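Per your request, structure below.
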């Protein structure tokens, strides 16, 4: 907890310390701000009959600092008259807003139970999609109509719409479980999901060659990001598994990566074997940070936005504008299948727990299919155009 004068500029710059869920900053008057992962909530603190209380005034910047000071002064004036505004608000049983409850969701559910990359995804979805539309509403004010309207506004982005609906369903489920809402009141349950078309994009041999040339072009300006892209392709790993990779997880002698359960989608430790090209990428990397393999601007933290910006430049140079970083995982799987590897081996390489999951990655790209078709056609044609061999007749006669 910090004590200092609040200003609009400082309110904008406050950040939550690493590893913490929130930060409180107070003025000596009793006015304070709770800096959360998504919102800055202005509160007033006072004592009544020896007991300390806090009362929420509103969320900044929707509630300007000047207005918050005026409201705080009113609350403190009532306290001087012997009243207890905080207790009165509690007796009214006020239901939290979606924005306030989202902070609780992140602190008590998402961070303890989800992977860091999933938490970042929830924060982005809340901050960019859900809270701008519904953040100021109390939970009991949000019905199926409001969720349906938000969902319908994203009909041209069905995957994003479905993710927002799913997160809202989780939030309201927890609100019921934590006693904020009655059981069975979840407004997201009745909203139908949009149909999603699976996206499959594999790199042909020609495209891989163009990608290799583009990576060489950009290696001088962004060596770490290019190395991360190459490692993604050579391992078939998920983006977060490589971007957040730590040196403690790298076993060069054993030629593998050992990822802890909290960093794996499967919620269990995973070992990723390293091929010679993958090993070469890692052995040539400079140790710019003692903790992370691909450090960002801040010590001890990995790069995230940097690799996306570099990848945009790389794929533009290679003429692969529709290829995502995740498609490199598809490419790894398609090359494995084209090389004759079975689904169980492929599933083990990718870290899957269900065969059905591996089947989604086991489709073949156009080049291997064409090569297989050419091979089959050539053998059929050779058989059709050849003359019967004498030894076949002799074998038939021998059996008779």
């Amino acid at each position: 907890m910090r004590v200092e004068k609040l200003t609009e500029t400082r309110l904008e710059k406050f950040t939550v310390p690493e590893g913490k869920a929130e930060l409180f900053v107070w003025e000596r008057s009793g006015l304070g701000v709770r800096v959360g992962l998504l919102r800055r909530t202005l509160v007033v603190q006072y004592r009544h009959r020896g007991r300390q209380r806090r009362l929420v005034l509103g969320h900044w910047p929707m509630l300007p600092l000047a207005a918050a000071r005026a409201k705080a002064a009113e609350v403190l004036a009532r306290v001087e008259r012997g009243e207890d505004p905080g207790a009165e608000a509690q007796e009214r049983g006020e239901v939290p807003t979606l924005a306030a409850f989202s902070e609780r969701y992140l602190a008590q559910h998402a961070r303890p139970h989800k992977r860091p990359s999933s938490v970042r995804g929830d924060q982005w979805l809340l901050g960019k999609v859900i809270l701008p539309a519904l953040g100021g509403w109390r939970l009991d004010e949000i019905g199926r109509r409001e969720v349906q309207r938000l969902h319908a506004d994203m009909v041209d982005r069905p995957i994003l719409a479905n993710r927002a609906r799913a997160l809202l369903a989780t939030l309201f489920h927890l609100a019921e479980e934590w006693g904020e809402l009655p059981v069975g009141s979840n407004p997201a349950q009745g909203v139908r999901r949009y149909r999603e078309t699976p996206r499959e994009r594999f790199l042909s041999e020609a495209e891989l060659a163009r990608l290799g040339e583009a990576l060489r072009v950009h290696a001088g300006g962004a060596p770490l990001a290019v190395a991360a892209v190459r490692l993604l392709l050579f391992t078939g790993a998920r983006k977060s598994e490589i971007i957040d990779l730590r040196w403690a997880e790298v076993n060069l002698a054993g030629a593998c990566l050992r990822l802890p359960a909290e960093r794996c989608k499967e919620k269990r430790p995973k070992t990723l074997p390293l091929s010679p090209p993958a090993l070469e990428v890692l052995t040539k990397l400079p140790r710019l940070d003692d903790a992370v393999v691909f450090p960002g601007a801040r010590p001890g933290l990995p790069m995230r936005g940097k690799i996306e910006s570099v990848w945009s430049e790389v794929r533009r140079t290679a003429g692969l504008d529709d290829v995502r970083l995740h498609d490199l995982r598809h490419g790894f799987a398609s090359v494995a299948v084209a090389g004759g590897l079975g689904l169980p081996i492929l599933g083990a390489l990718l870290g899957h727990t269900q065969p059905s999951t591996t089947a989604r990655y086991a489709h073949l790209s156009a080049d291997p299919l064409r090569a297989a078709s050419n091979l089959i056609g050539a053998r059929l044609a050779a058989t059709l155009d050849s003359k019967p061999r004498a030894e076949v007749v002799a074998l038939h006669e021998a059996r008779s």
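The longest helix spans residues 158-177.

Regards,
D.
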